[in-house]
Queue: 3 jobs
Job 1
Amino acid sequence: MSDISNMQEEKPEMCECCCSGKTKERDDKEFKDLMNRLKRIEGQVRGVERMLENDAYCTDILVQVSAITSALNSFNKVLLGNHMRTCVADNIREGNDEVIDELVTTLQKLMK
């Protein structure tokens, strides 16, 4: 695993296809927590790849994929909570109620 202090420099460039173009500065604690979660998920996915390459039994793979799904859902919950406490709250305080519609749209996408 790479050095956590260097993670700030490893931020990938934003994609053009699906991103709103907005950005958010995250404090070190939030950034490190989210990155650690993603790194663990990445490791779990690599583990499933190895299981498949090694002809692991179907249900064993399915259990691991379920764990990945749970980890991604947990990541989303943490990120959504942070978003609501910072971005949404700040926008509402500044009088930008459009952020509520954006949040509703985001929640609808997450609840598919």
Job 2
Amino acid sequence: MVDLTIKALLADAIKKMRLREYGNPYLDAQLILAHVLHKDKTFVMIHKDYTLNDDEVNTFRSLIDKRNAGYPIQYILNKQEFMGLDFYISEGVLIPRPDTENIVEAVIKIIKEKFADIDAVRILDIGAGSGAIGCSLAHFVPKAKVIGIDVSDSAVSIASTNKKKLGLSNYEIHKMDIFDDIYLDLNGFHIVVSNPPYIPADDIDGLQKEVSAYEPRIALDGGVSGLDYYIRIVRIFSKLSAEKAILALECGWNQKDNIEIIMKQTIRFDKIETIKDLSGNDRGLIGFYSRN
């Protein structure tokens, strides 16, 4: 008789996934099994003799095969934690990364220090994706009015789901393209923030398979140099901004110097600060601007 208990199924799944390079196949298998059973991970850990029915077994094995092929665990589970909040995630949007939390935390700090006297801080999130940045800012800065824009229908739909999931009345998401002179419709923002596509086009296929094969190329491809969107965002920033504003940009670990040059050559920022990740790498820039 085939053993269809949690213990046996986990053992089989882990054995299969260990043939590939995974950080933690045991955790992935636990999470996928909990997802199939509509239980939490604790249930899977303490009910090793629980027997699955045939439908549950087939679903579990199918999802393990997908994960084993490199399909992101976040797309399987339809969730990812970001800034301590649970976001709905599915194909069509970039999976939120911890590095991006550094940008959100820096913006929140600046709002408290520099914009405390403004009753309704206006924030624009360019390339909203899942809404991780914009929704987090709306959650942690209740007095803010946050608008996210994205060119992708999937992103607009998923960000709308997260707006509802998090109960945010101060967040809006719109389908818009920054190359369509969005400043004609949007302006007066105290904060403009973006995690734009910044991978050089020729480098995408060399990324980890979970990224190159499954995450949306439109959210990765920054053109030949990886800088296309920075050039455009910086160029229109002063038309989007209020009299006093900041521009916060996430970037790749080796792009800071080039982006800073673009910023200095395009706009007279009062100062430009670098945001570092927990490893000390340069992962973002913030330009402080005042229109004189």
Job 3
Amino acid sequence: MTHKSKTLATWLALMLGSLGAHRFYLHGKRDLLAWLHPLPTMLGVAGALRMHNLGQDDPVAWLLIPLLGLMLSAGMLTAIVTGLGSDEKWSARFNPGEAVQHSGWGAVIGVVLALLLGGTVLMGTLAFGGQMFFEYQIQRGNR
């Protein structure tokens, strides 16, 4: 078993958490949850590309873009939970039998960035979803 760094796991969740990179790092390529991350993320990216190409009136893009926002937010939440966890519990779970290594400022900086980015992405996703819902209701009422 190789040593697992809490700081590296935090940064993987921050940078590539929506694709499951942190889970691949921690649990290996046989982790089913890691393989479930890329699909909704790619669907959300496809929705963003559809909206870019077809405009804001595309209802398929309305449904797909929030998937991207939710997966990005989930990655940020994972970075926060990972980075704020105690070093002792981390060591017991992922590095049993080894001396506890303290994560230091690298994990803390990753948590701060995840809070900033995650809050921004989540609020943007909620605002976009709400706007599209109400625009749909208005269009439906004008028929």
